[in-house]
Design brief:
14 strands, alpha/beta, single chain, elongated, about 35% helix, 4-stranded parallel sheet
Length: about 425
């Protein structure tokens, strides 16, 4: 990723040379790039306000913008200091520069420096292009948790090729509730330069981009961000899609119709991800869970959807099971049930504290993804000092027509 940043340095060197800038001038340009990449400034290039009422996707992308922006601004500061004292050679011959105005506001000091007495059109055009390329770089990396490892596609015009996809991505982020598929589509374009079917991830010759929860704890993993995993994935760029586009249409099984949970729960199950064949540029994948020689299969796309939709409480006592005698359901019977499991007869608890993350993720893919709560199973011996002991809390469970809550209890260590 530092190579993508370094590729923009000749533009910055041109600004320095054309204006005969000094170290004091470098401080002005440093303040400019920090203001451009920050959120909430007059000069921000991403007017995204996040808060408690923001969607999870907006909060995750806002945090990414701040983290990546701060790092790129630090790189820019170091580059300015280095280029002022150790300039890099520019290509020989006349340099023709044209850069459209992209609406990036300048600080008063930067505007005076680049357009004032020492500035001119060449320096302004060079700086305008450099600034825009850095903004494009920041935005292209927003979908990825391990953003410094992502192999972005760089063309002779830098990252200009992502502009139409970026415009669509930012418009949805800023004016509506952005969809996970839109984040994936933008990430795919930034890496491959291509578009494709809507899905939850993609694979290409150099690796795969799939939701971060596949290698992070379920309780703390981002819901919408991707992680880049290098390695041969496909001969062509493919999209990972869910088996069911519309989960509302999936058959359902009531917990009340399943065999009751037994006092002895099965030991740890084993699970693995099995990719399906490629067809028309798409691929499904499944989580296969094995127990005593028997296998259950859950669509990975539905499992990831279940993780995105699951409610994660903040640890308040009111998030304990609602019934004074909460009903329980068996993990293995739920995993093997036909369709999606739900309940209309009061809250149900599924204790999966002995299982690994992939098994729990598979369970989330088997539960109807409304009114599912994922929380740690705190007990007196391991609960935080400020967390009350779990006690049942009475609350209304509906009139029997809509879904009641399915509470999935995971190991407290996942709470961080």
């Amino acid at each position: 990723m530092t190579g993508n940043f370094t590729a923009t340095e000749p533009l910055l060197q041109g600004v320095i040379d054309d204006n005969a800038l000094t170290r004091a001038d470098g401080e002005v340009l440093e303040a400019q790039i920090r203001a451009t990449l920050a959120l909430g400034t007059r000069e921000t290039s991403l007017p995204l306000a996040t808060g408690p009422d923001s969607t999870p996707a907006a909060r995750e992308l806002g945090a990414q913008a701040e983290k990546i922006g701060n790092e790129l601004a630090s790189w820019a500061t170091a580059a300015l200091a280095r280029l002022l004292t150790d300039p890099i050679p520019l290509p020989a011959g006349p340099l023709a520069v044209r850069s459209h105005c992209y609406g990036h506001l300048l600080t008063p000091a930067a505007a005076d420096l680049l357009l004032g007495r020492r500035g001119g059109p060449v320096a302004m055009q060079l700086y305008n292009e450099w600034l825009h390329q850095i903004v494009l770089l920041r935005d292209a990396l927003l979908p990825f948790t391990n953003w410094q490892e992502v192999p972005l596609l760089i063309t002779p015009t830098g990252l200009r090729h992502i502009e139409p996809a970026r415009d669509a991505f930012l418009t949805e982020l800023l004016v509506r509730r952005i969809r996970h598929t839109s984040i994936v589509a933008f990430a795919r374009h930034a890496v491959t330069g291509t578009s494709g079917p809507a899905g939850y991830g993609f694979g290409t010759g150099g690796g795969t981009a799939l939701p971060a929860v596949l290698d992070q704890p379920l309780l703390t993993a981002p819901r919408h961000l991707l992680t880049w995993r290098p390695g041969p994935a496909a001969d062509e760029t493919i999209t990972y899609v869910a088996e069911l586009r519309d989960y509302y249409a999936a058959p359902r099984t009531l917990v009340e119709h399943l065999p009751p949970a037994t006092p002895t729960t099965p030991g740890p199950l084993t699970a693995r991800i099995v990719p399906g064949p490629v067809a028309d540029g798409t691929r499904t994948a499944a989580v296969e869970i094995t127990h005593d020689g028997t296998t259950a299969r859950v669509d990975l796309g539905q499992a990831l959807r279940g993780h995105r939709f699951a409610h994660r409480p903040d640890g308040a006592a009111g998030d304990a099971p609602a019934d004074h005698s909460p009903r329980t359901a068996g993990l293995w019977t739920a995993l093997r049930a036909p369709g999606l499991v739900w309940t209309r007869a009061g809250d149900v608890t599924l204790d999966v504290t002995a299982q690994d993350d992939l098994v729990v993720l598979a369970l989330l893919g088997r539960l109807y993804p409304e009114n599912v709560t994922l929380r740690p199973a705190y007990r007196p011996a391991d609960r935080p000092a400020d967390r009350p002991v779990d006690r049942p809390v009475a609350r209304a469970t509906g009139d029997g027509d809509g879904p009641s809550r399915l509470v999935v209890l995971v190991d407290p260590s996942q709470a961080g």
